[in-house]
């Protein structure tokens, strides 16, 4: 019964994701019809085939599509859409785990300072004279990891990490890192606009390189977190009951915290700080599919991909592009306030 529910819900959301991606491909400054977009996508596919006795990658489709259209689809739109789907997938996955970890639907991936740490690393790189390949996402990634694991070390005492202490340590570290960001922005000079734009959260500079960089990390971490969904379910009962049922609470906490933190770090490193995806999406899916993380985690992850691709599509509409972080906040905050007014937000 559970497996059937997982398959049905995941398949349904996957179909929705495919529909959103298909629609998103047609949106942009250059007007390209849906048919042209699909033909350009098919033209770009290559399959391994044996040619003259050797294995080569061959493109089986040669539809009549202009080179400009193919360049726009494959070099600009598809990398951005796929990167958005991966980032949304990662943020929603991390948000689901964090809400279960803290047993609070108000929790999100940034609660222990991971996003703020990434912001410090990114802004520090932007204002510095150093320029290296993938230097910005690398700086953001390591800044996120240092912040997340720093909060964990601060909150840990005698081998135990109380959730309340972890939360308070996260708030304190976020406040301090916020001051560091403000100080760095004061000396940003000509790089101020770039730094602020990054802090808003965006998918503007998406490339296939970033897609290849983040995709395997997110997939591996998702499978890793999926293996702990049963333990996460048991931990919702409380520490004492979890220990009684054979769960090593402290070890499980460390594993879940590390997995969610690294997942968030990978996402934020390539997109900037995009809020509300990891907060709103898991909460909505919890209302739809229930609190069992074995179904909640995969469905939330897919829904996160749908949400971010859809909001980025909205961000690309109109004469001027808007950072997607602004759109997610504009949609997420009022909806969450609506849930609060409806008394739909409960402790887990």
Give a brief description.
The chain is mainly alpha-helical. The chain has helices at residues 2-25, 34-44, 67-102, 114-127, 135-155, 163-186, 192-200, 208-226, 229-235, 239-244, 249-271, 277-289, 293-315, 324-341, and strands spanning 47-51, 54-58.
Q: Give the beta-strand count.
A: 2
Kindly report how far apart the N and C termini lie.
23 Å
Spatial order of the strands forming the largest sheet: 1-2
Structural class: mainly alpha
Explained architecture:
It is a multi-pass membrane protein. Keywords: Cell membrane, Membrane, Transmembrane, Transmembrane helix, Transport. The structure is a single chain. The chain has 348 residues and is mostly helical. 71% of the residues lie in helices and 3% in strands. The chain is built from 14 helices and two strands; from the N terminus they run ααββαααααααααααα. It has helices spanning 2-25, 34-44, 67-102, 114-127, 135-155, 163-186, 192-200, 208-226, 229-235, 239-244, 249-271, 277-289, 293-315, 324-341; strands spanning 47-51, 54-58. A two-stranded antiparallel ribbon has the order 1-2. A hairpin with a 2-residue loop joins strand 1 and strand 2. The longest helix has 36 residues, at 67-102. The radius of gyration is 21 Å and the shape is globular.
């Amino acid at each position: 019964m559970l497996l059937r529910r997982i398959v049905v819900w995941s398949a349904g959301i996957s179909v929705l994701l495919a529909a959103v991606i298909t629609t998103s491909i047609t949106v942009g400054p250059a007007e390209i019809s849906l048919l042209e977009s699909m033909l350009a996508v098919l033209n770009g596919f290559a399959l391994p085939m044996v040619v003259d006795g050797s294995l080569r990658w061959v493109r089986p489709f040669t539809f009549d599509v202009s080179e400009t259209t193919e360049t726009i689809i494959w070099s600009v739109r598809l990398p951005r859409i796929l990167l958005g789907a991966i980032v949304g997938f990662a943020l929603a996955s991390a948000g689901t785990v964090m809400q279960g970890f803290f047993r609070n639907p108000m929790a999100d991936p940034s609660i222990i300072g991971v996003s703020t740490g990434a912001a410090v690393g990114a802004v520090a790189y932007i204002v510095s004279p150093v320029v290296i390949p993938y230097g910005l996402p690398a700086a953001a990634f390591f800044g996120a990891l240092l912040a997340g694991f720093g909060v964990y070390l601060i909150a840990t005492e005698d081998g135990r990490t109380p959730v309340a202490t972890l939360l308070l340590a996260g708030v304190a570290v976020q406040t301090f890192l916020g001051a560091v960001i403000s100080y760095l922005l004061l000396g940003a000079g000509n790089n101020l606009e770039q730094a602020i734009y990054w802090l808003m959260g965006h998918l503007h500079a998406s490339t296939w390189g970033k897609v290849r960089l983040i995709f395997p990390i997110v997939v591996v971490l998702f499978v890793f977190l999926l293996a702990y969904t049963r333990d996460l379910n048991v931990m919702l009962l409380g520490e004492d009951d979890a220990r009684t049922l054979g769960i090593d609470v402290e070890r499980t906490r460390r594993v879940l915290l590390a997995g969610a933190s690294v997942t968030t770090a990978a996402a934020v490193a390539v997109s900037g700080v995009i809020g509300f995806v990891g907060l709103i999406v898991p909460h909505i899916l919890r209302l739809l599919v229930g609190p069992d993380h074995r179904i909640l985690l995969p469905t939330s992850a897919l829904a996160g991909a749908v949400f971010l691709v859809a909001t980025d599509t909205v961000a690309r509409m109109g004469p001027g592009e808007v950072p997607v972080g602004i759109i997610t906040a504009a949609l997420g905050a009022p909806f969450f306030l609506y849930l609060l007014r409806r008394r739909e937000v409960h402790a887990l």
